[in-house]
Amino acid sequence: MKNIFISILVSLGFFFIASFFFVTQHAILIALIALLVILWTNEALPIGVVSLLPIILFPAFELIDVKTATANYSNPTIFLFMGGFMIAIATQKIDLHKYISNKLLTIFPKTPRGMIFSLAFTSALLSSVLSNSTTALLLIPIAIFLTEDLKFKARLALSIAYGCSIGGIITPIGTPPNLILLGFMQQHSLEPIAFIQWIFLTAPLALVMLIIIPLLLSVGLSDVKLDNSVEHSEVLQKDQKRLLYILLGLVVVLLVNSKIEPYYSGLGLNETAILLSFGLLMFVPKIGFIEWEDAKKIPYEIIFLFGAGFTIATAFSKTGLASEIANYMLSLTNLPVIVLILMIATLITFTTEITSNTALISIALPIIYSLGQVANIDMTLILMVATICASYAFMLPIATPPNAIAMSSGAVKVKEMAKFGFVINILAILSVTIISLVYWQFFI
Questions:
Q1: Is the peptide bond before 262 cis (omega within 30 degrees of 0)?
Q2: What does the pLDDT look like over 391-400, one tens digit per residue?
Q3: pLDDT for the residue 78
Q4: Residues 418, 41: contact at Cβ < 8 Å?
Q5: Residue 229 has what pLDDT?
Q6: Helix 238-257 and helix 76-93: axis angle, to 10°?
Q7: Inside any domain, residue 146
Q8: What is the domain range of residue 167?
Q9: Angle ∠(24,335,19) on CA atoms, nearest 5
Q10: In a domain? residue 42
């Protein structure tokens, strides 16, 4: 009860402060978001319970109606997760994750830091061409089996989650905000960024982050030992071989389906439908591996968590709070370029912690474009900064799909994610600002 009382008290403080800058409706929304974030962080209530509160609170304060709120809990992205969770459950049921994880031990350096570096780089490279959700769903169940040490499990899960977010910025197809930026630039007759040019611009930033994050996550793990004592077969069993072929088939379909504009348009299949189809395939007799009873292992609290995130994003748009924040930003145009970029990077990075990066960047790009026109700075540069920062959210499970999937593993606590994530957010903001001014402005 103490943590619940503290959460309410702090949210009232947010309301009081916000009332000086925003209308009452917007101040209420800010206070309610603060309440949800604090309850998630201090774990005063179960995550699933907190995640369902927007259905009650947002209509109660007349921010959005119940129908609009509940619709967000059936967002297509949620069914992508369900398909991925079904595959993960099948992988664990037949112990394929044990076989793969023990094989990883023979490839990666046999130290905690070496494992964290290897998993961060692997997840980043995969998520540069695959969905970061898919990459996290495939890797995290395998990675946390590498040790019985709870602290090390959490660090491994976070290294994959963070690696996925970093990898998403490497290519234009790595994450939806990148494609939204390219479409926006085309609409406004800005010179497009070619596929190879994008990689050339983002690779140094990704490399910097892929060095910083594993170093930070490996702090305090010097006394941790990898679990090499797990019994496993050196030969794949029949069921394991079948599932491995299915997983390879899934990866091939996802790769072939990926767009590489303007060179290749992909198959045009919906990625949610692909993941859900392969997930449901796990139930088919003589092909699949699980029964309906196994579906109880799906972490539904994480599904509710994402429903809450989508509901917050909807409330931002419906109440006009996003536009109000935009108006305040227009007053920043007289600031020096370095301060302006730093403030944009900070605002986008921390805002994307509580709302969908796709929704945020769709709202933010027109605002940033107006800012760039008034401030008379390189338009592509400032749009690029905003887009990259929309994918760099490391603090909260609702911020990105990989963060939520790391939470669903049971290895990561919200407090731990917030602690590491806050530091990494600051480092990411500084890295993006420095690289944009020192490197991007000469090649864009």
A1: yes
A2: 888 998 878 8
A3: 78
A4: yes
A5: 44
A6: 150
A7: yes
A8: 76-297
A9: 10
A10: no
Q: How many CB atoms lie within 10 A of CB 391?
A: 28
Nearest alpha carbon to residue 133 among 168, 169, 98: 168
Q: Is residue 201 part of a domain?
A: yes
97: left (phi over 0), alpha (psi -120 to 50) or beta: alpha
pLDDT value for 146: 78
Number of structural domains (the chain) is 1
71 burial (CB, 10 Å; 0-12 / 13-18 / 19+) is: middle
Q: How many C-beta atoms lie closer than 10 Å to residue 160's C-beta? A: 29
Q: What is the pLDDT of residues 135-156, one digit of tens each?
A: 888 788 878 877 888 889 999 9
**Per-residue pLDDT at 158 exceeds 90:** yes
The answer to whether 185 touches 383, Cβ cutoff 8 Å, is: yes
Contact 123, 163 (CB under 8 A): yes
Give the C-alpha distances (Å, rounded to integers) separating 164 from 87, 127, 225, 437.
19, 5, 25, 25
198 burial (CB, 10 Å; 0-12 / 13-18 / 19+) is buried
Pair 407, 397: CB distance under 8 Å: yes
Residue 263 clears pLDDT 60, i.e. is over it: no
Do 348 and 364 contact (CB within 8 A), yes or no?
yes
Quote the radius of gyration of the chain (alpha carbons, Å).
22
Distance CA 400, CA 202 (A): 19
* 208: pLDDT strictly greater than 90: yes
Q: Is pLDDT above 60 for 387?
A: yes
Tens digit of each residue's pLDDT (9 = 90 or more) over 90-126: 887 887 766 766 666 666 677 888 889 988 988 888 7
54 preceded by a cis bond (ω within 30 of 0): no
Residue 264 has pLDDT above 80, yes or no: no
The count of residues in the chain is 444
Q: Which of 33, 98, 27 is nearest to 308 (CA)?
A: 33
Is 220 part of a structural domain of the chain?
yes
DSSP string, 255-296: HHH--BTTTB------HHHHHHHHHHHTTSTTT----GGGGG
